[in-house]
Amino acid sequence: MIIVMKPGAAASSIEAVIRHIKNAGLQAHLSAGEEVTIIGVVGNKARLAHDNLAIFKDVDKIVPVSESYKLANKKFHPEPTIISAGTATIGPDNLTVIAGPCAVESEEQLLAIARAVKASGATILRGGAYKPRTSPYSFQGLEEEGLRFMQAASAQTGLAAICEVVSLEAISAAVKYVDMIQIGARNMQNFYLLKEAGKSGLPVLLKRGLSATIEEWLNAAEYIVAEGNPNVILCERGIRTFETATRNTLDISAVAVLKQKTHLPVIVDPSHSTGSYRYVPAMAKAAVACGADGLMIEVHNDPANALSDGPQSLTFEKFDLLCKELRPFCSVTGRSF
Ligand code: PEP
Ligand code: MN
Predict the structure, then answer these.
(1) pTM of the predicted structure, to 2 decimals
(2) Which of 18, 143, 177, 222 could be joined to 151 by an S-S link, Cβ 3.0–4.6 Å?
(3) CA pair distance 160, 177, nearest whole angstrom
(4) 101 CA distance to ligand 1 centroid (A)?
């Protein structure tokens, strides 16, 4: 449940409510907005059942929160969350473009891509060092060496860096080299990994599972935030449907739904959701038009020879053109780019 305080509630009244919640063995989460302060209660609220918090001074109303995710819930935190990762910011005022290769292949390849995507307007460099591939015989990633190349490319360009993690060892390595970690679609419900990501101290980009509902996805985000890490970005990357014309089906409506349900930033990955470079520009524009806070796009110097996901990767020229075409979409949605 949440306790909504009256506009201009005294600090002593807010403290009294928090003390009461804590004395019942529950957690109190404060969200101080411009107008009103909201106090979210996490824990077994039956412990508060016999107390009438409504009679506390400056309490306006008590609202039950029926959803199982609380800290990720917009009711707990009505203002949109703004996340900083290295030199980049993700939130409602700008469009954050994350771009780079599916997999880090070599230091030279990564640096060339980093320079190109930065020149076009990206602020975060992506690159997989640990690749969760469908086949065990496909390229699995350069692991810690790939992370070192990410750090070097980030240092030389000023871009923030993000890398997917697939294990506790990968998290321990990633915190030494990159600004942000990614939990991929296949690990969205790896609850142990989610908790460890929550403890990492780095912002976490959480991709939607291949057949996860939005509610399951928000509960996965809750696992991370419940570890004391409020910096979670949700990434819609397409879901499994009966359709085979695209690699997955981009659930663009998820952006609109999430904007109602959570304060966490929402981004869209038009590369994995479509599987073809041909559809990436249209889906990227649709994402911005419907309110996404950012995009994650695969870009490669030589898609025909990429070690993974070449068919969906944009060349430097196509990525540059897309960034130019996105600018008017940012203007009409009130975002800077
Ligand atoms: C990726 O971003 O490299 C990736 C593997 O994506 P997903 O988890 O969405 O398949
Ligand atoms: Mn990929």
Answers:
(1) 0.96
(2) 177
(3) 11
(4) 11
